């Protein structure tokens, strides 16, 4: 999961630099998360949405931090910013579809529309959860919590590798495109969804 997030993180470095925002990824050998199974396409949208919002609502000279936490049963990704923050009232509805802030409230919810609702939906499809901690004028922290292993998925969530077949990536890992998979990049050749764990 760590390497997966690092790849997405790199796509936002230039945008943050152009806005004079310090974008920091806290990753080392001690906090690398393993044995988390992902649908890469959906989880990419989750991480990208959270990073995009963090940059959008953080003023120049602000800071965004991406951190990883691991327990025996879960892997967590936290994206925190020093942006405008979200009021307590808004936090109760921030994941609702098409929720719009009332006039006078923080502009954090302007234009969010379906974005965070889909983020929550995609995380829950992984058997996970997303939490928020925020204070107006000081920033926000979104944390995605995913279970380790694959027992929380059903057989229907996976395509059996023998049926779909896979190719070998440059690093020697099995490679398949979408679907739930483990740490390396896995893609079923026939376009069907298939599993893969992330590191």
Describe, in short, the structure shown:
The protein has 199 residues and is α+β, with helices and mostly antiparallel strands. The protein contains five helices and ten strands; from the N terminus they run H-E-E-H-E-E-H-H-E-E-H-E-E-E-E.
Tell me what you see in this structure.
By secondary structure, this protein is α+β, with helices and mostly antiparallel strands. The protein is 27% helix and 26% strand. It is built from five helices and ten strands, in the order H-E-E-H-E-E-H-H-E-E-H-E-E-E-E. The protein has helices at residues 2-18, 40-56, 88-91, 115-125, 161-164; strands at residues 22-26, 36-39, 63-70, 74-81, 129-135, 139-147, 167-168, 174-175, 180-183, 197-198. Helix 1 packs parallel to helix 2.
Mean pLDDT: 76
Task: Give the helix level as a range of percent.
Answer: 25-40%
Structural class: alpha+beta
SSE arrangement, N to C:
HEEHEEHHEEHEEEE
Widest sheet, order of strands: 1-3-4-6-5
Overall shape: globular
Number of strands: 10
Low-confidence stretches: 101-113, 160-178, 183-196
Largest sheet: 5 strands, mixed
* CA gyration radius, whole angstroms: 17 Å
How far is the N terminus from the C terminus? Answer: 4 Å
Beta-strand residue fraction: 25-35%
The number of helical elements comes to 5
């Amino acid at each position: 999961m760590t390497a997966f997030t690092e790849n997405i993180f790199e796509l936002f470095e230039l945008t943050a630099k152009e806005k004079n925002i310090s974008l920091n990824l806290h990753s080392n050998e001690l906090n690398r998360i393993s044995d988390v199974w992902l649908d890469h396409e959906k989880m990419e949208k989750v991480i990208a949405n959270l990073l995009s919002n963090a940059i959008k609502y953080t003023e120049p000279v602000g800071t965004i931090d991406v951190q990883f936490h691991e327990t025996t049963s879960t892997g967590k990704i936290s994206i925190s910013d020093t942006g405008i923050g979200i009021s307590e009232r808004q936090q109760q509805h921030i994941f609702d579809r098409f929720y719009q802030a009332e006039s006078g409230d923080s502009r954090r919810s302007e234009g969010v529309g379906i974005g965070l609702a889909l983020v929550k939906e995609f995380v829950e499809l992984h058997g996970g959860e997303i939490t928020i901690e925020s204070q107006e004028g000081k920033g926000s922290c979104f944390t995605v919590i995913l279970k380790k292993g694959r027992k929380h998925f059903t057989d229907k969530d996976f395509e059996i590798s023998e049926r779909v077949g896979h190719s070998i990536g440059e690093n020697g890992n099995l490679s398949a495109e979408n679907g739930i998979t483990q740490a390396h990049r896995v893609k079923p050749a026939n376009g069907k969804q298939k599993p893969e764990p992330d590191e």
